[in-house]
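Journal club prep — side note

Before the paper discussion, L.F. wants everyone to see what a predicted structure for a comparable chain looks like in token form. Sequence:
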Amino acid sequence: MKKRFGIDIDGTVTCPTSMIPFLNSAFNLNLTLGDIKEYDLTPLVDISEEEFATWFKENEPLIYRESPLANGAKEILTKWKHNHEIFFISARGSHLQQITEEWFLQNALDFDHIELIGTHDKVEAAKKFKVDIFFEDKHDNAVMIHQACQIPVILFDTPYNQDPIPDGVIRVRNWQEANQWVTSWLK
């Protein structure tokens, strides 16, 4: 039976280390993914939240253009696209639509829809598009989507999303584990 998959982009389809080279270069740091213990990156840099927001806004097109795919994402997403609808739902702002679509084309990733909502609150988008399952890397998003929509949410394990999860949010280490869980779920 055909399902509709809601999938976050950054840190899920893209490698969760995507921003690290940019942070290291811009702020003279030597961070690794293991150093990032929370989703908010401002504690890692020695500037105000406003300055960091300005830096990020200036650099996000380049960061998103150069983000590498997460290991295994292309193979699994390509497999799923044959039998399911793939809706990418991201906190990126709509002004990044063209860059985002170009990145998907460059990486040969097919999709049914890309929705850039400009906020981390993805509950309304998940409801609007009637997704049956969601894939996310941000802990609070995963929990909120599961609780509000009563759907399974696959949470890609990272050092910044280690808070406890309720039943219905499934922690996986990689796309292969996500695929194994989905295969079981579909039976």
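L.F.'s comment for the group: The two ends are 10 Å apart (CA to CA). Keep this in mind when we get to the figures.
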